[in-house]
Amino acid sequence: MEHRPVISRRDLLAAGSLAAAAVLARTAHAAPRRRGIPLGYDNFAVRAMKWNARRLVDHADSLECDSLFITDFGPFEGKLDDASLGELRRYAADKGVKLVLGSWSICPTSKSFKADWGTAEEHLATGIRMAKALGSPAFRVVLGNQEDRRSEGGIAARIADTVAVLKKCRPLAEDAGVKIAVENHAGDMTSRELAGLVADAGGGVVGVNFDSGNACWTLEDPVRALEHLAPHVVTTSLRDTMVWESPAAGDKPGGVTCQWTAMGEGCTDLVAFFDLFEKACPGVAVHIETISGFPRSFPIHDRDFWKLFPDGRAEDLAAFLALAKRGRPIEPFQPPAGEARAAAEREYQLAELARSITYCRDVLGLGLKS
After folding, report:
1. Rg (CA), the chain
2. CB 3.0-4.6 Å disulfide test: which of 97, 109, 281, 341 passes with 92?
């Protein structure tokens, strides 16, 4: 008998209200030009639900998604063997959902690296094998986060260590027909630095998982960052971002504040973004990874702050500041009074993803399903 996870009445009611909202939203916009870009979501968008892989597939089906990006091994509940992964692949295929796989740091000297899956090479080898079993065209990995820019040798040393791992595992990826997609993650690398990593690793089987929100954490306009990385993009984790100029407060210098948000609710020029994406990244799926509700400020007027970044960023910074001029402050997420935070976060994440998928389909013309 097929095992199906128990869904609470609260979750069912929330799902019903979201579906109704999606129908209403679809009637509010004129039909856009269809771009022929597959549309799906990254499971981190609904991390509070703690769903297993099959439940994630079911949700992708309910949202009429073409693709599902499972970016960590947790949802497989320890069933990492080829036979179990093949069953999941068939389950998803029956619903018209393609699977893409990812995991975390493969830089052995990164502050983010964990030995849960063995050495960096062993972790990468496991992911490549699993991706092949799932029919995933790529396996997403990351270097680390912005703290690695402060480490001994800086980000250049961490990039070199990551490239060494990638080179050792290239033959495995080539034999499996799986590309390794390195993400611009949590402020670790600028788009130019990530393009350099791909070149150092030899390109071809090594590409990029492009994260539009993370581009803002390296003070880049997502459209400009995509221009630098588009030739290497093999998969995506996308969300909108509101960016605004923040005033000085007390002894803290002013700067720029970013807050990730649902698609269409920030100040990223999404039409320009997808005009470029459509031309430069044919066949690549858009995966929505909404991580909303909290701001992050960057003290760009503090000289010490720029020790994190290389010289020669004038053009990129100018584009980012122009983005901030278009934005406005928005409030962080807070649970409604009297409501438990965990339950409120679940509903908030479901709603952010549903609005994003609807906006992408009905305003931007993404998705292959009607």
Report:
1. 20
2. 97
